[in-house]
Amino acid sequence: FQMPSVIVYGGRGALGRAIVLHFKSKEYRVITIDCHMNEESDLSIMVDANASWSEQKSTILAGLASNAVGEVDGVFCVAGGWAGGNAASSDMILNAALMWRQSVVTSTIASRIGVKHLKKDGLLVLTGAETARSGTSGMMGYGMAKAAVHQFTKSLAEKGSGLPDEVTVVAILPVTLDTPMNRKFMPEADKSSWTPLSHIAEKLYSWTENIDSRPSNGTLLSIKTVGGVTTEENH
Amino acid sequence: FQMPSVIVYGGRGALGRAIVLHFKSKEYRVITIDCHMNEESDLSIMVDANASWSEQKSTILAGLASNAVGEVDGVFCVAGGWAGGNAASSDMILNAALMWRQSVVTSTIASRIGVKHLKKDGLLVLTGAETARSGTSGMMGYGMAKAAVHQFTKSLAEKGSGLPDEVTVVAILPVTLDTPMNRKFMPEADKSSWTPLSHIAEKLYSWTENIDSRPSNGTLLSIKTVGGVTTEENH
Q1: Is it the case that residue B201 has pLDDT exceeding 70?
Q2: pLDDT higher than threshold 80 for residue A2
Q3: How far is it, in rounded angstroms, from Cα A233 to Cα A220?
Q4: What pLDDT score does B1 carry?
Q5: B47 — contact with chain A (CB < 8 Å)?
Q6: For B17, which DSSP code?
Q7: B137/A143 CB distance under 8 A
Q8: What is the pLDDT of residue B147?
Q9: Probe site for chain B from A104, A155, A220 (most B CB atoms < 10 A)
Q10: Span of the secretion signal (chains A, B) (predicted)?
Q11: Mean pLDDT of all residues belonging to chain A
Q12: 3-state SS, residue B49
């Protein structure tokens, strides 16, 4: 017998913490991966976000192995961040590199975790962005990184991806999440168009528990909130 | 009076050399950027492909400034490479990092060159890949990097991209190019489905000379060759 388990990559971010608390409330074993410890989880694997892509992967896979994490039901990569800048911005390249580390490095490592730890029928969730389904001239590095995650989701859903059989891969594509950071930096914004973190946490729980509730493998799931009502659209 | 000029990023690769020779035959001033010198061009800016993203950008922009390159008619980023690997490959992360450096780092730096050196009405060409318009389970890092270039092309074509007014941005999306390397590694393949390098070089020349011949700004141009006949499709 093994407790149902999930790994939350980015588990100390706002969305990550909401997911950790939701699964803990459902008596799951929860492992977090983050630059910071999450004491609400059962195990925190710490990673240096400035280490190289390969070093981060090795640290994380070794941490999971040495703590005998074994098989899990879900791997959720909700690490990420935001930075703006167009081609004329002097910091466009630095910001693009940061967005790459935060979204693409983490998503690819999450796929390697999936190969090694996901059960047959498990769930791998990555985080894209609705806006990156088209051009994003004011936030070029962000858009590129999220577009890469979208295409990666399609690759992971194909036969021959290397993931265990019957794993479902979904990318969630929010517009704006209702986080403390967004409330701090956009105090005047219309919050009725922001998606509550609990909505995402509940979705992930439902998909983990009930295979029939999942979007089909490879779905890019746009998540939009209008007037406080959240709806989804599959791509 | 200034000679018509173009910058070829990746100008020592097979496609880059074909472009350099074509524009030289049309009496253009040609500047190459590459890890290796291209003695057929008027000026070679050398870059260490293992340096950081920001360092590469600084080296290249400083090289163009100190050689008084000034305004150019076209910036063509044809740097790139190929590596395979799915999520189960132990070298998937290393290959993804390599693909990122070869395609995304170069494309973003090309956009910064465009901001500083392209004429009004100039042409910026990036290199995507037809296959990355959907999932690429056997070459995950390659697909992600090319998908990022595709979305970046859409961002660069938007108002507010930071590029000079009236610049046209196009990504070429080949299937397989007829290069010496591909002939070496796929000797048995059907070469009548490979696109000749001269076809691409001639297209770039025509687009540079004649604005009306260009695909519309932001086009992802699929380039397919069947039975020796090459056709294009706009996305």
Answers
A1: yes
A2: no
A3: 8
A4: 64
A5: no
A6: H
A7: no
A8: 98
A9: A155
A10: none
A11: 97
A12: coil
Query: A162 pLDDT exceeds 80?
Result: yes
DSSP secondary-structure letter at A63? H
Helix (H) or strand (E) holding A232: strand A229-234
Q: Which two tokens stand for residue A15?
A: 């969305």
Q: Count of domains in chain A?
A: 1
DSSP class of B192: G
* Residue type, position A43, single letter: L
Which residues in chain A have Cβ-Cβ distances shorter than 8 Å to B143?
151-152, 155
Torsions phi, psi for B139 (to 5 deg): -150, 70
In chain B the beta strands, taken as DSSP E runs, fall at 5-9, 29-34, 43-46, 72-77, 118-127, 168-174, 219-226, 229-234
Tell me the pairing of strands A219-226 and B29-34.
Answer: unpaired
CATH, residue B39 = 3.40.50.720
The confidence score (pLDDT) of residue A78 equals: 98
In whole angstroms, give the CA distance from residue B13 to residue A229: 53
For chain A, how far is it from start to end, CA to CA, in angstroms? 37
Check the CA dihedral B207-B35-A108-B185 and report its sign. positive
For residue B47, name the pLDDT band (cuts at 50, 70, 90): very high
Predicted confidence (pLDDT) per residue in B168-178, tens digit: 999 999 999 99
Please confirm, yes or no, whether A205 is among the known catalytic residues.
no
3-state SS class at A140: helix
Catalytic choice (A9, A28, A142, A205): A142
The boundaries of the domain holding residue B189 are 5-234
Tokens 């890949």 map to which residue? Answer: B129
CA nearest to B235, candidates B159, B154, B142: B154
Q: Residue A166 carries which side chain, given as an amino acid letter?
A: E
> Looking at residues B24-47, what average pLDDT do you find?
97
**Averaged pLDDT, B140-156:** 98
Q: pLDDT by residue (tens digit) across B51-90? A: 999 999 999 999 999 999 999 999 999 999 999 999 999 9
- Report chain B's terminal Cα–Cα distance, integer Å: 37
Instruction: Specify the pTM.
Output: 0.97
* Cβ contact B93–A87 (<8 Å): no
| Euclidean distance between CA atoms B111 and B121, whole angstroms | 15
